[in-house]
Predict the 3D structure of the following.
Amino acid sequence: MTKQLDDQQLTAQKWFKELRDQICAEFEAIEQEAGSDAKFNYTPWDRLNHDDTHGGGGTQGVMKGKVFEKVGVNISTVDGTFSEEFSKQINGAADDPRFFATGVSLVAHMANPHVPNVHMNTRFLCTTKRWFGGGADLNPAIPVEEDTDAFHARLRSACAAHNPEYYPRFKKWADDYFYIPHRKVHRGVGGIFYDHLELEKEPDFDRHFAFTQDVGRAFLDIFPKLVRKRMHADWTAEDKHQQLVWRGRYAEFNLVYDRGTTFGLKTGGNVDAILMSLPPEAKWD
Protein backbone atom coordinates (compact mmCIF):
# COMPACT_ATOMS: atom_id res chain seq x y z
CA MET A 1 0.00 0.00 0.00
CA THR A 2 1.04 3.61 -0.46
CA LYS A 3 0.16 4.52 3.10
CA GLN A 4 0.06 3.02 6.58
CA LEU A 5 -3.36 1.54 7.35
CA ASP A 6 -5.12 2.56 10.56
CA ASP A 7 -6.72 0.14 13.01
CA GLN A 8 -10.17 0.23 11.40
CA GLN A 9 -8.79 -0.41 7.94
CA LEU A 10 -6.59 -3.26 9.14
CA THR A 11 -9.47 -4.82 11.10
CA ALA A 12 -11.81 -4.77 8.10
CA GLN A 13 -9.12 -6.05 5.73
CA LYS A 14 -8.31 -8.97 8.03
CA TRP A 15 -11.96 -9.99 8.36
CA PHE A 16 -12.62 -9.97 4.63
CA LYS A 17 -9.65 -12.27 4.07
CA GLU A 18 -10.84 -14.61 6.83
CA LEU A 19 -14.34 -14.71 5.30
CA ARG A 20 -12.84 -15.46 1.88
CA ASP A 21 -10.87 -18.36 3.35
CA GLN A 22 -13.94 -19.83 5.08
CA ILE A 23 -16.14 -19.55 1.99
CA CYS A 24 -13.54 -21.09 -0.32
CA ALA A 25 -12.95 -23.98 2.09
CA GLU A 26 -16.70 -24.70 2.24
CA PHE A 27 -17.08 -24.57 -1.54
CA GLU A 28 -14.12 -26.92 -2.01
CA ALA A 29 -15.71 -29.30 0.52
CA ILE A 30 -18.89 -29.35 -1.57
CA GLU A 31 -16.86 -30.24 -4.66
CA GLN A 32 -15.21 -33.09 -2.76
CA GLU A 33 -18.64 -34.39 -1.70
CA ALA A 34 -19.59 -34.45 -5.39
CA GLY A 35 -16.54 -36.52 -6.26
CA SER A 36 -14.52 -33.65 -7.69
CA ASP A 37 -11.00 -32.58 -6.80
CA ALA A 38 -11.56 -28.98 -7.94
CA LYS A 39 -9.72 -26.32 -5.97
CA PHE A 40 -9.50 -22.55 -6.07
CA ASN A 41 -6.74 -21.03 -8.13
CA TYR A 42 -5.49 -17.82 -6.52
CA THR A 43 -3.94 -15.05 -8.60
CA PRO A 44 -2.57 -11.95 -6.84
CA TRP A 45 -2.64 -8.61 -8.65
CA ASP A 46 -1.22 -5.15 -8.05
CA ARG A 47 -2.82 -1.82 -8.80
CA LEU A 48 -1.11 1.34 -10.00
CA ASN A 49 -2.41 4.86 -9.39
CA HIS A 50 -2.59 7.48 -12.12
CA ASP A 51 0.90 8.70 -11.16
CA ASP A 52 2.28 5.13 -11.32
CA THR A 53 2.60 4.84 -7.52
CA HIS A 54 1.53 1.58 -5.92
CA GLY A 55 -2.14 1.62 -4.99
CA GLY A 56 -2.66 -1.73 -3.34
CA GLY A 57 -4.12 -4.76 -5.03
CA GLY A 58 -5.85 -8.00 -4.26
CA THR A 59 -6.23 -11.69 -4.96
CA GLN A 60 -8.57 -13.24 -7.47
CA GLY A 61 -9.80 -16.71 -6.51
CA VAL A 62 -11.52 -18.83 -9.17
CA MET A 63 -12.69 -22.44 -9.10
CA LYS A 64 -14.25 -24.46 -11.94
CA GLY A 65 -15.64 -27.78 -10.81
CA LYS A 66 -18.46 -30.28 -11.02
CA VAL A 67 -20.92 -28.33 -8.87
CA PHE A 68 -19.56 -24.82 -9.29
CA GLU A 69 -19.23 -24.34 -13.04
CA LYS A 70 -17.45 -21.07 -12.26
CA VAL A 71 -17.14 -19.35 -8.91
CA GLY A 72 -15.01 -16.34 -8.11
CA VAL A 73 -14.19 -15.15 -4.60
CA ASN A 74 -12.04 -12.03 -4.67
CA ILE A 75 -10.49 -9.83 -2.02
CA SER A 76 -8.88 -6.44 -2.54
CA THR A 77 -7.43 -3.52 -0.64
CA VAL A 78 -6.76 -0.42 -2.70
CA ASP A 79 -6.11 3.28 -2.21
CA GLY A 80 -5.48 6.27 -4.40
CA THR A 81 -7.27 9.27 -5.86
CA PHE A 82 -10.53 9.35 -7.77
CA SER A 83 -10.68 11.17 -11.06
CA GLU A 84 -12.27 14.63 -10.82
CA GLU A 85 -15.40 13.44 -12.60
CA PHE A 86 -15.83 10.20 -10.61
CA SER A 87 -15.08 11.85 -7.25
CA LYS A 88 -18.31 13.83 -7.57
CA GLN A 89 -20.26 10.56 -7.55
CA ILE A 90 -18.68 9.19 -4.36
CA ASN A 91 -19.80 10.11 -0.86
CA GLY A 92 -17.27 12.41 0.82
CA ALA A 93 -14.92 12.64 -2.16
CA ALA A 94 -16.06 15.81 -3.94
CA ASP A 95 -13.63 18.09 -2.06
CA ASP A 96 -10.92 15.50 -1.35
CA PRO A 97 -10.65 12.73 -3.97
CA ARG A 98 -8.40 10.42 -1.94
CA PHE A 99 -9.92 7.03 -1.09
CA PHE A 100 -9.32 3.65 0.54
CA ALA A 101 -11.40 0.52 -0.09
CA THR A 102 -11.18 -3.07 1.11
CA GLY A 103 -13.64 -5.90 0.65
CA VAL A 104 -14.62 -9.35 -0.52
CA SER A 105 -16.74 -10.08 -3.58
CA LEU A 106 -18.27 -13.37 -4.71
CA VAL A 107 -20.26 -14.62 -7.69
CA ALA A 108 -21.11 -18.30 -8.20
CA HIS A 109 -22.42 -19.75 -11.46
CA MET A 110 -23.64 -23.29 -10.88
CA ALA A 111 -23.50 -26.26 -13.26
CA ASN A 112 -26.92 -27.66 -12.38
CA PRO A 113 -29.77 -25.32 -13.45
CA HIS A 114 -31.66 -26.22 -10.26
CA VAL A 115 -28.88 -24.92 -7.98
CA PRO A 116 -29.32 -21.18 -7.51
CA ASN A 117 -26.55 -18.83 -8.49
CA VAL A 118 -25.58 -16.24 -5.93
CA HIS A 119 -23.80 -12.95 -5.41
CA MET A 120 -22.35 -11.59 -2.18
CA ASN A 121 -20.04 -8.76 -1.28
CA THR A 122 -19.11 -6.72 1.76
CA ARG A 123 -16.77 -3.76 1.79
CA PHE A 124 -15.36 -0.87 3.82
CA LEU A 125 -14.73 2.46 2.11
CA CYS A 126 -12.97 5.58 3.34
CA THR A 127 -12.99 9.06 1.83
CA THR A 128 -13.51 12.05 4.11
CA LYS A 129 -16.28 9.78 5.43
CA ARG A 130 -16.27 6.06 6.26
CA TRP A 131 -18.88 3.40 5.71
CA PHE A 132 -19.66 -0.25 5.16
CA GLY A 133 -21.74 -1.64 2.32
CA GLY A 134 -22.65 -4.87 0.63
CA GLY A 135 -25.23 -7.59 0.81
CA ALA A 136 -26.20 -10.91 -0.74
CA ASP A 137 -28.79 -11.86 -3.34
CA LEU A 138 -29.98 -15.16 -4.80
CA ASN A 139 -30.16 -15.58 -8.56
CA PRO A 140 -31.81 -18.89 -9.53
CA ALA A 141 -32.43 -19.66 -13.19
CA ILE A 142 -35.33 -21.85 -12.04
CA PRO A 143 -36.69 -20.28 -8.82
CA VAL A 144 -37.92 -22.50 -6.00
CA GLU A 145 -40.06 -20.72 -3.42
CA GLU A 146 -38.77 -22.90 -0.60
CA ASP A 147 -35.15 -21.89 -1.33
CA THR A 148 -36.05 -18.23 -1.71
CA ASP A 149 -37.84 -18.26 1.63
CA ALA A 150 -34.93 -19.96 3.40
CA PHE A 151 -32.40 -17.51 1.97
CA HIS A 152 -34.45 -14.49 3.00
CA ALA A 153 -35.22 -15.93 6.43
CA ARG A 154 -31.52 -16.29 7.20
CA LEU A 155 -30.77 -12.73 6.10
CA ARG A 156 -33.79 -11.48 8.06
CA SER A 157 -32.41 -13.16 11.16
CA ALA A 158 -28.99 -11.57 10.68
CA CYS A 159 -30.57 -8.15 10.28
CA ALA A 160 -32.95 -8.53 13.23
CA ALA A 161 -30.06 -9.11 15.62
CA HIS A 162 -28.90 -5.54 14.92
CA ASN A 163 -31.89 -3.43 13.95
CA PRO A 164 -35.50 -4.51 13.29
CA GLU A 165 -35.71 -1.95 10.47
CA TYR A 166 -32.70 -3.31 8.58
CA TYR A 167 -34.30 -6.25 6.79
CA PRO A 168 -37.33 -4.50 5.26
CA ARG A 169 -35.20 -1.50 4.37
CA PHE A 170 -32.32 -3.46 2.85
CA LYS A 171 -34.61 -5.95 1.12
CA LYS A 172 -36.36 -3.08 -0.66
CA TRP A 173 -32.98 -1.62 -1.55
CA ALA A 174 -32.00 -4.94 -3.14
CA ASP A 175 -35.32 -5.21 -4.98
CA ASP A 176 -34.86 -1.70 -6.37
CA TYR A 177 -31.18 -2.11 -7.18
CA PHE A 178 -31.05 -5.58 -8.71
CA TYR A 179 -33.47 -4.67 -11.47
CA ILE A 180 -32.88 -4.61 -15.23
CA PRO A 181 -34.85 -1.58 -16.49
CA HIS A 182 -34.51 -2.33 -20.19
CA ARG A 183 -35.92 -5.85 -19.58
CA LYS A 184 -38.35 -4.78 -16.87
CA VAL A 185 -37.36 -7.80 -14.76
CA HIS A 186 -35.45 -8.36 -11.53
CA ARG A 187 -32.03 -10.01 -11.73
CA GLY A 188 -33.07 -12.71 -9.29
CA VAL A 189 -35.23 -13.30 -6.22
CA GLY A 190 -33.52 -10.67 -4.12
CA GLY A 191 -31.82 -10.55 -0.77
CA ILE A 192 -30.43 -7.49 0.96
CA PHE A 193 -28.33 -4.56 -0.23
CA TYR A 194 -26.97 -1.71 1.89
CA ASP A 195 -24.53 1.13 1.53
CA HIS A 196 -23.14 3.98 3.63
CA LEU A 197 -24.85 2.36 6.66
CA GLU A 198 -25.71 5.71 8.21
CA LEU A 199 -22.11 6.51 9.12
CA GLU A 200 -22.84 10.17 8.50
CA LYS A 201 -25.44 10.02 11.28
CA GLU A 202 -23.99 7.21 13.40
CA PRO A 203 -20.18 7.00 13.21
CA ASP A 204 -20.00 3.71 15.10
CA PHE A 205 -17.41 1.48 13.42
CA ASP A 206 -17.75 -1.43 15.84
CA ARG A 207 -21.53 -1.70 15.52
CA HIS A 208 -21.61 -1.48 11.73
CA PHE A 209 -18.63 -3.80 11.39
CA ALA A 210 -20.41 -6.38 13.55
CA PHE A 211 -23.43 -6.22 11.26
CA THR A 212 -21.28 -6.61 8.16
CA GLN A 213 -19.62 -9.65 9.72
CA ASP A 214 -23.02 -11.20 10.43
CA VAL A 215 -24.07 -10.69 6.81
CA GLY A 216 -21.02 -12.69 5.76
CA ARG A 217 -21.73 -15.40 8.34
CA ALA A 218 -25.38 -15.62 7.28
CA PHE A 219 -24.34 -16.17 3.68
CA LEU A 220 -21.80 -18.81 4.69
CA ASP A 221 -24.52 -20.58 6.67
CA ILE A 222 -27.41 -20.63 4.20
CA PHE A 223 -25.98 -20.83 0.68
CA PRO A 224 -24.02 -24.09 1.07
CA LYS A 225 -27.19 -25.67 2.46
CA LEU A 226 -29.10 -24.71 -0.68
CA VAL A 227 -26.32 -26.04 -2.91
CA ARG A 228 -26.20 -29.41 -1.15
CA LYS A 229 -29.99 -29.65 -1.32
CA ARG A 230 -30.17 -29.19 -5.10
CA MET A 231 -26.81 -30.25 -6.57
CA HIS A 232 -27.90 -33.83 -7.35
CA ALA A 233 -31.23 -32.87 -8.94
CA ASP A 234 -31.94 -34.16 -12.44
CA TRP A 235 -32.20 -31.56 -15.18
CA THR A 236 -33.24 -31.45 -18.83
CA ALA A 237 -32.00 -29.73 -21.98
CA GLU A 238 -34.86 -27.25 -21.55
CA ASP A 239 -33.67 -26.50 -18.00
CA LYS A 240 -30.15 -25.82 -19.30
CA HIS A 241 -31.45 -23.54 -22.04
CA GLN A 242 -33.44 -21.56 -19.47
CA GLN A 243 -30.30 -21.24 -17.34
CA LEU A 244 -28.19 -19.95 -20.23
CA VAL A 245 -30.78 -17.38 -21.28
CA TRP A 246 -31.07 -16.22 -17.67
CA ARG A 247 -27.28 -15.87 -17.53
CA GLY A 248 -27.51 -13.46 -20.43
CA ARG A 249 -29.79 -11.25 -18.34
CA TYR A 250 -27.34 -11.47 -15.45
CA ALA A 251 -24.47 -10.39 -17.70
CA GLU A 252 -26.49 -7.44 -18.98
CA PHE A 253 -27.07 -6.16 -15.46
CA ASN A 254 -23.46 -6.50 -14.41
CA LEU A 255 -22.10 -4.75 -17.48
CA VAL A 256 -24.67 -1.95 -17.68
CA TYR A 257 -25.88 -1.19 -14.16
CA ASP A 258 -23.67 -2.76 -11.48
CA ARG A 259 -21.94 -0.16 -9.29
CA GLY A 260 -19.18 -2.52 -8.27
CA THR A 261 -18.21 -3.09 -11.89
CA THR A 262 -18.16 0.65 -12.50
CA PHE A 263 -16.16 1.34 -9.33
CA GLY A 264 -13.55 -1.28 -10.17
CA LEU A 265 -13.06 -0.12 -13.73
CA LYS A 266 -13.06 3.60 -12.80
CA THR A 267 -10.40 3.06 -10.13
CA GLY A 268 -7.98 0.97 -12.16
CA GLY A 269 -8.82 -2.40 -10.65
CA ASN A 270 -7.88 -5.75 -12.14
CA VAL A 271 -10.13 -6.28 -15.16
CA ASP A 272 -10.17 -10.08 -14.90
CA ALA A 273 -11.11 -9.90 -11.22
CA ILE A 274 -13.83 -7.31 -11.89
CA LEU A 275 -15.37 -9.30 -14.74
CA MET A 276 -15.19 -12.66 -12.97
CA SER A 277 -18.90 -12.04 -12.33
CA LEU A 278 -19.66 -12.90 -15.95
CA PRO A 279 -20.89 -16.45 -16.61
CA PRO A 280 -18.71 -18.96 -18.50
CA GLU A 281 -21.50 -19.53 -21.02
CA ALA A 282 -24.72 -17.68 -21.85
CA LYS A 283 -27.39 -17.28 -24.53
CA TRP A 284 -29.54 -14.45 -25.83
CA ASP A 285 -32.18 -16.48 -27.68
Observations:
- The radius of gyration is 18 Å.
- The chain has a mean pLDDT of 91.
